Amino acid sequence: MSHATIHHGVDLCDVDTLRDVMTRHDAFAERVFTPDERAYCERYPDPVPHYAARFAAKEATLKALGIGLTPFGVDRALQDIELVRRGRAPALRLAGRPARAARALGVFSRAVSISHEGERALASVVMLAEAPE
Questions:
Q1: DSSP per residue, 45-72
Q2: What is the total count of domains within the chain?
Q3: Is the pLDDT of residue 31 over 70?
Q4: How far is the CA of 125 from the CAs of 1, 27, 39, 95, 128, in angstroms?
Q5: What SS3 string covers 91-110?
Q6: CATH number (domain holding residue 78)
Q7: What does pLDDT average to over the chain?
Q8: Taking every pair of C-alpha atoms in the chain, what is the biggest distance, in angstroms?
Q9: Which of 20, 15, 37, 3 is nearest to 132 (CA)?
Q10: Which is more confident, 60 or 86?
Q11: In which domain, by residue range, is 17 found?
């Protein structure tokens, strides 16, 4: 019988903090979020809570992969993790180093859940990987 290992990451993002960062750094959204993510968030009267949920999902993904932000820089790492819509449910699209890290871990399934209310956005990422022999 084959067993799987579980990799989990969770992140909480403060909406006001992200709003401040986005106000002070004009190019922040372009550096961190993909064009499709920006288009999705900008559909809303206040896009920042939606950006915050996506930012939390990106960080939670890096935590689930066990690599965090520091090994290869914020900009590239976060552009390589995209929150996409699969019907009504969000899903993760990985590229670059995060995709390579997932393959190295043997990840065969992943799930993401996001939520935002008031001034907090939360994301949880669960990945299933083949257990080492």
A1: SS-HHHHHHHHHHHHHHHHHHT--STTT
A2: 1
A3: yes
A4: 25, 27, 23, 16, 10
A5: EEEECHHHHHHHHHHCEEEE
A6: 3.90.470.20
A7: 90
A8: 54
A9: 3
A10: 60
A11: 4-130
64-102 pLDDT, tens per residue?
A: 998 876 655 555 678 899 999 888 889 999 999 899 999
Q: What would the two tokens of residue 25 be?
A: 């750094």
* Burial (CB count within 10 angstroms: exposed 0-12, middle 13-18, buried 19+), residue 115: exposed
Burial zone of 118 (CB within 10 Å; 0-12 exposed, 13-18 middle, 19+ buried) = exposed
Strand, helix or coil for residue 44: coil
So what's the pLDDT on residue 67? 84
CB atoms within 10 A of CB 39: 10
- Check residue 132 and give its pLDDT: 75
The pLDDT score that the predictor gives to residue 78 is 87
- Cβ-count burial of 119 within 10 angstroms (0-12 exposed, 13-18 middle, 19+ buried)? middle
> What's the pTM?
0.91
